[in-house]
Design brief:
Layout (H helix, E strand, L loop, with lengths): L3 H10 L8 E6 L6 E5 L3 E2 L7 E5 L5 E5 L3 E6 L2 E5 L3
Antiparallel strand pairs: 1-2, 1-6, 3-4, 4-5, 6-7
Amino acid sequence: MIPIHQLLSRIRWDKEFGTGYFEVGCEDHYTKKLVRIPFTRIHFESGNQFSFRLEEETGEMLVIPFHRVRQVCRDGILIWSRAG
């Protein structure tokens, strides 16, 4: 299985692979439920291989560690999933 940071990088930089509507399923830290985040709301910091920033609808930025990512979907189809 490809590491999540490599998959997200491929979505960002591989124009052919990165076409479509992507969602990242992250585990909510408090409720332990899966929350789907549109890829367009995710921001990456150069050199950071441990987390990304999520722009909330209010404009607030949250830091999401890669280990909380559980799924990635492309056009509604699951393309990556973390065991457990």
